[in-house]
Amino acid sequence: MKEAPISGDVQHVVKRVFIKTYGCQMNAYDSARVIKLLEPLGFLPAVEPDHADVIIYNTCYIRDKAAEKVYSELGKIRQMKIARERAGGTMIVAVGGCVAQAEGAEILHRAPFVDLVYGPQSYHRLPELIGRALRKGGAGIIETNFPIESKFDYLPETSATDGPTAFLTVQEGCDKFCSFCVVPYTRGAEYSRPVAQVLSEARHAFEAGVREITLLGQNVNAYHAEGPDGKDWGLGRLIRELAELAGLDRIRYTTSHPADVDDELIAAHRDVPQLMPFLHLPVQSGADRILRAMNRRHTADVYRRIADRLRAAQPDFALSSDFIVGFPGEREEDFLATLNLVEEIGFAQAFSFKYSQRPGTPAASAEGQVPESVKSHRLDILQRLLKRQQRDFNEACVGKTLSVLLEKRGRHDGQLVGRSPYLQSVHVAATDQAGEIVPVLILGASANSLSGSLAKGCRV
Ligand code: SF4
Questions:
Q1: Phi/psi at 308 (nearest 5 deg)?
Q2: Is the CB of 257 within 6 Å of ligand 1?
Q3: pTM
Q4: SS3 per-residue string spanning 398-415
Q5: Predicted confidence (pLDDT) per residue in 100-148, tens digit
């Protein structure tokens, strides 16, 4: 790790940081890195914003009205900041993440009390930026240029881990430019972290007690970096190397793009027992006409073939996906093609949304915007089908013995909650095996979770 610039002011004035994280797992990972980054400066995490000297909103731009939600949140914090300053104290308010990248100066215009706006590629500079914000006393700072240096070179090698699972960002940014998506504009071009850096962070995680790692990237299977042998390593090769590290019991990765599922990755599913038999692989639509309009760079049949190959590579493989209904130009027959694809593939889980316009993306100004009532109707039909598939998948687990990584206490005494290989929440009658992977006989299933008791004889 290279040394990030540190301001002396930070060390002496500010002691507590509150971070509110929106959106995806990568934002959760980034927030954990920020905690670690600020730790050497004497910061401790605050549970509530009114106990904090620095308040950070790590924002997400994916969901509908994301920016408005951030402004509403900022409105709530304004009185708190005024009260603090009237009492002679200091409160730095920072907005980071993808809304910050997309809105930039507009945030300072609409919420002038904000001290700092920074993009997702600049958070390694936070110690310096917070110091500058303290010195500037009220004039907002904007740091949304994509820096030349990689932030990963300036971040601590460890994240704040909590329990036996951890995220590890291996790739960031996206070059795909799906016509509905803001990520290429907010996170920038594709970037893969060097293999050695990834392995080192993974080792630290295992030493901290982590048993399961989820490799993260906006387009994680676009990962390509030079390996220690001087050759280009893709995600499949990286997974094989991670699997060699003692102590690693489970590997997952998210989010993937169908166009980047290659032979090496499928072979990793066949050969690496730690790689879980479950993949979130967004398809978005089952109609090629819409996939083309979305600039998805794959067809529905390509997706079908990938599903077949993954199922051939790893027994009991299960898929999850993302769907957008009511994309501009979507006709009834396109929607029916989506329903057909869902019926054919069969999903264990899925996320589905009505298309909503993201300012600045090509689809936002495309012709053929679908009326809200039609979108709602289609979404309702699709979600019923997906929910039925999820319930069927969960019910098919009853009577089976699944390996479960127990993560934390459940809501009831004598109960721990963990995850199955398929990411289902499993409530287990157990008390003192937190952090362990145990065989669980599944006795009950609901729409969203499973329950069971400790069993013997399962390969874990
Ligand atoms: S591949 Fe994913 S992150 Fe990249 S533009 Fe498409 S939807 Fe957005």
A1: -60, -45
A2: yes
A3: 0.86
A4: CCCEEEEEEEEECCCCCE
A5: 988 888 999 999 999 999 998 888 889 889 888 887 766 788 888 777 6
